[in-house]
Structure formats: structure tokens, C-alpha cells
Task: structure prediction
Amino acid sequence: MSDTQKAMALLIATFDRYAGKEGDKNTLTKGELKELLQSEFGDMLGKASDKKALDSLFKGLDANQDNSVDFNEFTNLVSCITVMCHDHFCKK
Result:
């Protein structure tokens, strides 16, 4: 398996580890997203315990406004963070 395929499998496994603990196994609730952010990103995104910031992030991710974050919406977050890290670490 290539590194890219491994990264894809890891993204899927990470999403699946948190999704469904409080409901639908195909989506993240706000609580599940908070746990994922705290465990997987640490302080990289600021404090996941900041309710106002978490509410704002959740609202921004929930593109279809169904009060949950699906895999597509989750990958948008990961993609944006990855681009920001690339820009930060690759500045010349």
C-alpha cells in the first residue's frame, strides 16, 4: 500500500473511531467532534474546550446544516489544516 493509500485509510479509521459514539455511525456530533479535535489535534487548533470556538467551527463544517459533521465535511477540515501546515512549513 502506498503512503497516500495509508493516509486515506488512516483518515477513514480516525473518523470511524469517533463517529457513532453518540448516534449515527456515519456522522460526528458536536461532542464527538470535540473529542476528535482534542485527541487528534491537541492544541493545534486552539482550545477545543472553548465552547464558542467549537460552536463556530462546528457550524462552519456543517455545510448541509443537519447538525452533524459527515465524512465529507470532516475531510474538508483536514484538507484545510493540511494546506495551512504546508504553507507554514514550506514558506521560503
